[in-house]
Amino acid sequence: MPGFDAVVRLAARSLNVPLVSLVLHGGETYAYTSGHDSSSRDVGRSQHPFYAETAHRATPQWILDTHLDMRFEDKSLHLSHAHEPIRFFASEPVFTLTGQQIGALCVMDFQPRLALGDAERSALRDAAALAGTGVVLRNYLGRTDPITQLPHRNAFFEDMRVQLSEGMPHAWVMAVDVAPVQRFNAFVRAMGHAYADELIRLAAQRVQGWIPDDVRLYQVGVTRFAALLHDRDMLIDPSRMDALVASLREPFDCLGIPLTIQPGVGLLKIHARELRGGDPLRLVMSASHAAQSHTRGWSIYDRAQDEQQRQEFFLVTELAAALADESELTLHYQPRVDLDHGRCIAVEALLRWHHPTLGLIPPTQFIGLAERAGIMQTLTQWVLDRSMSQLAVWHGEGHDIKLSVNVSSTDLGSGLLERLDHSATRHGVNLSSVELEFTESTLMEHSATTRRYLSAIRELGAGIAIDDFGTGYSNLAALRQMPATSLKIDQSFVRGMTTSRHDEAIVRSVAELARSMDFRVVVEGVETERIYDSVLSMACDEAQGYHVSPPIPGAQVSAWLRSHRGMRARQPT
Ligand code: C2E
Ligand code: MG
Ligand code: MG
Fold first, then answer.
1. Quick check: CB of 371 below 6 Å from ligand 1?
2. Which 3-state string (H, E, C) describes 165-208?
């Protein structure tokens, strides 16, 4: 090890000992014996548990005579089988420059001692400090991780190239993700680096226990390992992969605290001829990352899934940028007509995103993405603020209409109440003219908390609509537990109404049932006059759809409202 030779010579000479060794957390021991050639030798893992204890000991220790120490009564201390027992032993912890302890520097003699002088202690301390710098240096040079002592990413690439060019036509790259990065960072904040280091070391040991003996394990990220496996290791034996995942899911005893991790294992088959320029680690990491949220916990790289992830990532960054500069996002509004009078009484705000190169991206494509990327709240905030400012303008012009805004499940419980209240105050809008639309599935997701939340929205004065009713699996009785005011029957039933008697019957009976439960009934997707006419004969209060009007840009709403002559109204009975 670079730097180590000088350190051991320094320690051996100033303490006048024949043996010097460096024991690391991972159990590796580098030892120097005087009389041998000056170079240090790795004698592997020392057997006595005392060495492992010493490697983790954060303070110096010295044992003047091991024969007088109870710990060595049953098993005397040896450096290796070739040597006589060690009588004198002293150690000093070894730290990296950032203060992480990585092991200890030990000096030993076959003769006991009577005392250890101050000068000798400080010489040992200096040598240990130098050893720490030496280990760090070695890691800086890019080969080994100080905690796990596993070779790094650079070594992985070099070894992979060598193996594949030496006649192995293909191999499997395996990546193991120990925990999602965010979770791991939270863990470090809560528990400190010592626990985190220990956890990674223990996880590495389990993976090492699973891979064949002649296969190296590499540390390719803070929480990520990789290995190159031969075809013959029959990797894609699902039960073997299941066993690896199961072993990683077993709780770890991390410095006395039991912990479980969320592992993900990814696999990718690579061919020697495909190597040039590619980055197999990036690809396999997309598989291991995806596998963390699978019940199975491992997955084989899938190009389509990777493409989709990349596309999603691209869209999310574009959407975040669009939100910041606001020029690509607009709102369209779709009129809702009251069937008793044929008059527009409300408009629904619908987001539009015009991407400069991709063109118009439909909300069905980017809303889910925004939810997964955690930017939905910003988006909803923007929609609320923009649409309420519009509503204030329309009210100022004398249009007596209400506004409905779509809200996503990720908005619930994240300051939505405050934002709603704040936007309304800011634009001087009375919340009794605003309705929030939640999809049926959102409402049924966490029913108890959701119910409390919706009640608070109702207390502010806003209405609540159940959107896309009929697409979920909830029944009306369960939904009635929610303090909702309207129910919107999904367009998928409505569109087929005039051709399918089945759909017609569904819409008719749902409307009747909903009305009897005191919901205001809105029918979506009224595309034709025929549908409109048959809806008129049902227990419905409002219609919305292309037959009335498609969604229109905000700037054109006033003109539409002024010129709209009204739809056919229901005959009073
Ligand atoms: P939604 O809330 O059910 O909105 C109605 C959708 O049906 C709109 O699609 C509208 O353009 C479309 N539509 C209206 N009339 C007809 C018709 O007669 N026939 C047919 N076939 N379709 C009609 P759009 O604008 O593409 O929005 C799709 C969905 O995206 C919305 O469904 C809503 O769930 C979501 N969305 C749109 N804007 C927002 C938003 O600002 N926030 C949230 N959270 N979701 C939004
Ligand atoms: Mg809606
Ligand atoms: Mg809908």
1. no
2. HCCCCEEEEEEEECCCHHHHHHHHHHHCHHHHHHHHHHHHHHHH
Atom in ligand 1 nearest the alpha carbon of residue 546: 18
Measured from the CB, is residue 144 less than 6 Å from ligand 1?
A: no
**Residue-level length of the chain:** 573
Q: How far is the centre of ligand 3, averaged over its atoms, from the C-alpha of 524 (Å)?
A: 6
What 8-state DSSP symbol labels residue 555?
Answer: G
Per-residue pLDDT at 137: 63
198 is an active site residue:
no
What are the structure tokens assigned to 337, written together?
């007509």
Question: What tokens appear for 108 in the block?
Answer: 């030993």
- Residue 367: CB within 6 Å of ligand 1? yes
Quick: pLDDT tens for 9-37. 888 888 999 999 888 876 677 777 775 54
Residues 107-138 pLDDT 10s: 999 999 999 999 999 999 999 988 887 766 66
351 lines ligand 1 (CB under 6 A): yes
Pocket test for ligand 1, best of 348, 350, 388 (most atoms within 8 A of CB): 350
Mean pLDDT of 340-346: 97
Identify the weakest region by mean pLDDT among 132-136, 184-188, 288-292, 408-412. 132-136
The CB of 407 under 6 Å from ligand 1? The reply is: yes
Which tokens go with 517? 């439960």
Question: What integer pLDDT is reported at residue 271 of this predicted model?
Answer: 83
Chain mean pLDDT for the chain:
87
* Beta strand residue intervals within 80-155, DSSP E: 88-95, 101-109
Closest to 53 in 3D by CA, of 80, 25, 21? 25
CA of residue 371 to ligand 1 center, whole Å: 16
What are the distances in angstroms from CA 256 to CA 100, 198, 442? Answer: 19, 11, 41
Ligand 3 centre from 406 Cα, in Å?
9
User: Per the residue annotation, which of 524, 527, 529, 542 is the catalytic one?
Assistant: 524
> Tokens representing 141?
């040079």
Q: Read off the pLDDT of residues 531-568 as tens digits, 9 standing for 90 and up.
A: 999 999 999 999 999 999 999 999 999 999 999 999 99
Rounded distance from Cα 466 to ligand 3 centre (Å): 9
pLDDT tens for residues 360-391? 999 999 998 888 788 899 999 999 999 999 99
Nearest-ligand number for the alpha carbon of 331: 1
> Is residue 545 lining ligand 1, measured as CB closer than 6 Å?
yes
Q: Which helix (H) or strand (E) holds 146?
A: none
Chain centroid to CA 332: 33
Question: Which residues on adjacent β-strands are paired with residue 230?
Answer: 171
Phi-psi region of 362 (alpha: psi -120 to 50; beta: other; left: phi over 0): beta
Which of 129, 134, 143, 140 has its CA nearest to residue 99?
A: 129
pLDDT, position 98: 66
Residue 400, judged by CB atoms within 10 A of its CB (0-12, 13-18, 19+), counts as: exposed
| 78-93 mean pLDDT | 86
CA of residue 316 to ligand 3 center, whole Å? 24
